Fold these 2 entries.
Entry 1:
Amino acid sequence: MSKVGETTLVLDLLALTHNYNVLRSKIDPDTKFLGVVKAFAYGSDMVAIAKRLEELGADYLAVAYVSEGVLLRESNIKLPILVLHPLASNFDDLIANQLEPSIYSINILNQFLDRAKEKKQTDYPIHIKFNTGLNRLGFSEADVDFIVEKTKENGCIKIKSVFSHLVASEDANERVFSLKQISSFKNISDAMTEKLGYGPIRHMLNTSGIINYPEAQFEMVRSGIGLYGYGNQAEVDAQLQPVATLKTIISQIHEIGLDQSVGYNRAFKATSAIKSATLPIGHADGIGRQYGKGKGFVTINGEKAPIIGNVCMDMIMVDVTKIDCQEGDEAIIFGSEKSAEQLASMANTISYEILTAISQRVKREVLNQ
Ligand SMILES: *Cc1c(COP(=O)(O)O)cnc(C)c1O
C-alpha cells in the first residue's frame, strides 16, 4: 500500500470483491444480493463501491435517503436502488431518479400514492416494510388487508418486495426472539402473497443474519457491514478483509518534560519525560473525543501509540516514547493491521460508528479500481 502525504482513507476494492464472494458463498446461488451503500457506503466512497458491486453482479443497492440515491443515479449507476427511509418531501426526486421507496406506514403509502398518481405512474415498484419487533419503521401485520386493497385499486404502484429487519441478528442470546421475528415475517409475507395474487421478493437478513440465520434468506439478503470487511463476530471477521484503511502522517514530534502537559485542558500530564507525536486528524475527521485520554491508539512503524490528552478538532497527540519514528512517518488509525472493530471497542462503540464517522474532509484513495 502506497505512502500517504496527508490523512487518507485508502479503499481496496479487491477486499470488497473478496467480501462479496465470501458472503455470496453463504447463500444459495439463486438468492438475490442487495448491497447496502447508505451513508457514503459506510463512510467509504459510495460511487466507487456501488460501481464495483454492479460489476460483481449484485442485484440491488440500498441507501437510507433519497439524496443518496440521486448521487448514485448522477454517477450512472443502473441497478435498482431501494431507499430505506424516504420522506414525502423527496418523492419528486425519488420518482425522477427511478428510486424505489420502502413504504413503511399508512401515512407514507397514501402520500406516495397521491404523488405517483399525479405523475401518472403505472406499476411503480415499491417495497413494503413490516415491523416484526424493532419498533422503528414498518407496518404491522394488521395492515396487510389495507395495503393489498390500496395496491389493487391503484394501478400506479406494484409491490416488488416485502421485507423486515432483525433486532439482534448478531446476538446468540436473542436467538429465540430472532426466530420469532422470522416466523412472524413468514406469516405476514405468506398472507401478502396470497392476497395480492403474486409473490413479491421477500428479504429479512442483514450481514449477521446471513451468518446466523441462512435458513431465512428467502429470495434476497441485504448486506452492508460484511461487504466492508466486518462481521460482528471474530470468526466472521477472520474470513473478511477490511476495505478501508485510515492513515495519516506525523506532523511534529515533541519532547515532553516531567509535569508538562499535552493538549487542551492539560488532560495529559507527564509523570516522566515522554515523546509525543502530533497527527493531522481530529474529531472533525471522525475520531471522536471518546478515543482520547488513552482509550484509543494508532499504529506507527508497527507499534502501538496511545492517544494522549483530549482529541482536538483537527489533531490528536499520541505517545511515541518507545517508538523509533520521525516527522513524516506514517500512522495507521485502523485498517488491515488493527481493525476498526478493535479501535471502536476501546471506546465502547461498534465498527459501524467509527467507519461512518469518517468525515468528507478526509481524502479517499481507491485502489484496484
Ligand atoms: C443498514 C441496514 C442493513 C445492513 O445491515 P448490516 O448489518 O450492515 O449488514 C440492512 N437492512 C436495513 C433495513 C438496514 O437499515
Note: The first helix runs from residue 13 to 25.
Entry 2:
Amino acid sequence: MEKVHVFNAGPCILPQEAIDNAIEALKNFKGTGVSVICMSHRSKEWESVMNECRSLWKELLHIPDTHEVLFLGGGASLQFLYVAMNYLNKKAAYLDTGVWAKKALKEAKGIGEAVAVASSADKNYNYIPKGYDIPKDADYFHITTNNTIYGTEIKEDIDCPIPLIADMSSDIMSRPVDVSKYDLIYGGAQKNVGPAGVIFAIVRKESLGRVERYIPTMLDYRTHLDKDSMFNTPPVFPILVMNETLKWLKGIGGVEAIHKINIKKAELLYNEIDRNSLFVGTAAKEDRSIMNVCFVMSEGNEGLQEEFATFAKERGMMGIKGHRFVGGFRASIYNACKIEDVQALVDCMKEFESLKR
Ligand SMILES: *Cc1c(COP(=O)(O)O)cnc(C)c1O
C-alpha cells in the first residue's frame, strides 16, 4: 500500500507511538492481564492514568494553581451549553468568527441575553474581526481561537477587561497559551490531543459559582471539579489515548517545541499556495491558522478542482477536501502531522502545476 498522508480535520492523525501504546493497553493494561476497557475506573491503575494525564496538561501548558483541568464527555458542542449555564448571569458577549462560534452563541441565547460584538460573516469568515469593543457589563467574552472550517486563528492571548472564555478545540497544545488570562478554556480532544469522546475544560476555580440559576448536576463544572472528573464513569479509553498523546508531546519537547515545528509546516504549505499560480489561499494572510490551511483553485483554474482532488488522492493525500462552507481544499496539519506529510502535499501541488503548464 502506498503511504497515506492524513490531513483529516477531526478526528485526525495521532502519533503512532500513542496508538501503539493504546493498543497494548487494550490488550493488557499495565500488566494486569486485563484490557483497560474492562478495568474499574476506581482501580489504582486507572487512577494513576487520570493523575498522569492531569499532570501532563498542567506541565505542558504551564497551568497555574488557580486553574484545574477537567475531562468530560459530550463533545465541545455540549460545552457551548456548559459555558452559558455556568457563567451567564445577565449578559454574554461573543466574537462571531464562524460556524462553531455561532453555535456557541446560539446555546447562550437559549439561557439569557447574548450578543455578537463583531462578526466576519460579511466575508464568509475569512478573517478575524479587529477593533471591536468588549462590553464591560457582560459576564464574559467568548472567542473561538482557531476556526477549523475557515482556517483563521487568533494566535495571541487577547487582553480582555472581563472574564475570557475560549473554545480551543482545534489549536490547543499547538502553541503556548497564557492560561492565567482565561477563566475557561475548553475543547474536544479529537482535533489535536486525542480521539473523539472526551473534552478538556481548564477552569479558573474561583470563577465558578457566580450564577444564580440551578445548574443540572452533570452540567455544573463544580460537580466534576469536586470529584476529579470522576463523578460518573469517565470515558476511559479516550482519556488513555489522550494521556499517551501528551506523553509523546512531552517526549519531543512539549508545546514550545511543537509550536516551532507547526510554524515550519504551515509556512511550507502557505509558501507553496502563494507561489503556485494554480492555487490561492482563502484566509486573510495575517489571520492564517497554523492548524487548518484552506485554499481553492485560483481564478480561471476553478475547472481543475476535481482533477487535482483525484490527482492528490492517487498520491496518498487523505482528507484535503474543503468544508462545504468554503469549498476547495483544507489540509489540517495538527501536531502529529509530520513535516514530511506537508512536503508530500507541496510536492504534489508542484507536480500538478508542471503538468498544467
Ligand atoms: C470540532 C469543533 C467543535 C465541535 O466539537 P464536537 O466535539 O464535535 O462537539 C467545536 N469547536 C471547534 C472550534 C471545533 O473545531
Note: Residues 10, 75-77, 100, 144, 148, 167, 169-170, 188, 191 surround pyridoxal-5'-phosphate (CB under 6 Å).
